[in-house]
Write a structure and sequence with these properties.
Blueprint: E1 7-9, E2 23-27, H1 31-41, E3 53-57, H2 60-69, E4 74-78, H3 86-96, E5 103-107, H4 113-118, E6 123-126, H5 131-142
Parallel strand pairs: 2-3, 2-4, 4-5, 5-6
Antiparallel strand pairs: 1-3
Length: about 140
Amino acid sequence: MTEASTTAVAQGPGEPAGADGPRVLLYSDDRAVREQVRLAVGPRLRAHGPRIDWLEVATPAAVVAAADRARWDLLVLDGEADKAGGMGLTRQLKNEVYECPPILVLTGRAQDAWLASWSLADAVVPRPLDALELQRAVAALLS
């Protein structure tokens, strides 16, 4: 996947991206992880609520660029991504981005929560991903 490889998803027919729903940046170098997160969270936080506007990115540089050029309601970062994991990126963004949005880090296991606290993550969800736990964490950070 190239750096420009980003995908906006979750718009319905006739709904422009970012119409009034939350904007979520999702980073993982693994397409299957990104899909698993989107499916677990669902297209909306609640019935009849606005659709979530997702932007998927696959490289650390794309995360930093997206965080610098746009306003996000939430960042979801894969702590197990190769080359630059979500924990290191979280710490960087929390220190460099003015009014950094909340960040949810996906860890490889529950025991890695202490390391995610070092990263300044606002929330942590371990693997294997539990759809209900992930949805609750996303909803809590977006409320």
